[in-house]
Amino acid sequence: MVYVVFGSHSDPTLRIARSIASAVDWSNEYEARPAGEVDPREVQGPGVVFVGYPSGGQELDRSLRTFLDHVPDRTMYSVYWAVFDTRDQLARAIAGSAVRRLRRAIEHRGGRLLLPPESFYVGPGEHGIPHSEVERARAWGASVIAAAVKELHDHEVRAGTFSGTSGRPVWEAWCGAVS
C-alpha cells in the first residue's frame, strides 16, 4: 500500500503531493489526501507513507499531528516513511524546517524513514511552483518506491505499475535508480 498524506491545504503543497502520487499511480484513481481525510487505521504495511507539510510556523498542522499520533504502533514499524516539505528558498533560515519536525514525530513513534527527507522549492503566490520542482517531486516519489521495492524484495511487481516504465519488469528498470 502507498499513501500520500499532507497536512496543509496550501496549493503548492497539494500540487507537490499530487506529483508524488502520480509517480506511484497504477490505478489511475490514486490521489494525495489531506491528513484530516485519512483514517490512520486504514494505513497498512508493508507499504510506504509519504507525509508532507509546508515549512513555516512552529508546529505541525493539527490534522497531520492527529494522523501521526493515531497510526497504530504496529503500522508505524511495518511501513516505510518518506517525508517532504514545500518552502520558499529562504524559509529554512527564517521559519525552520518542516521535514525536521516530521522526521522527529515519526521516529519518536518508532517509524523509519526509507530515504532522507526532501524539500521542494516554491515561489511566491498560489501557483509559484517551477515545473522542474513538480517533475523532481515525481522522480523523488519514484525513487522512494524503488527503494521500497528493493527493500522488500518484491520481484512480483510488473511493468505498468509505475508511470513511464518500459516493458521490462519494474525492478529491472529501477535497478539503476537505487544502486
Kindly state the percentage of residues in helix.
40-55%
Low-confidence stretches: 154-179
**Beta content:** 15-25%
Shape: globular
How would you describe what is shown here?
- It is built from seven helices and six strands, in the order βαββααβααββαα.
- With 179 residues, it is an alpha/beta fold.
- Strand 1 (2-6), helix 1 and strand 2 (33-34) form a beta-alpha-beta unit.
- Residues 154-179 have low confidence and may be disordered.
Question: Briefly, what is this?
Answer:
With about 180 residues, this protein is α/β, with parallel strands linked by helices. It contains seven helices and six strands, in the order E-H-E-E-H-H-E-H-H-E-E-H-H.
Main attributes of the structure:
Rossmann fold, alpha/beta, disordered C terminus, 6 strands, 7 helices, 179 residues, globular, six-stranded parallel sheet
Topology overview:
Layout: E1 2-6, H1 11-23, E2 33-34, E3 47-54, H2 62-70, H3 73-78, E4 79-87, H4 91-95, H5 98-108, E5 112-113, E6 118-121, H6 131-152, H7 170-178
Parallel strand pairs: 1-2, 1-3, 3-4, 4-5, 4-6
Helix pairs in contact: 1-6, 6-7
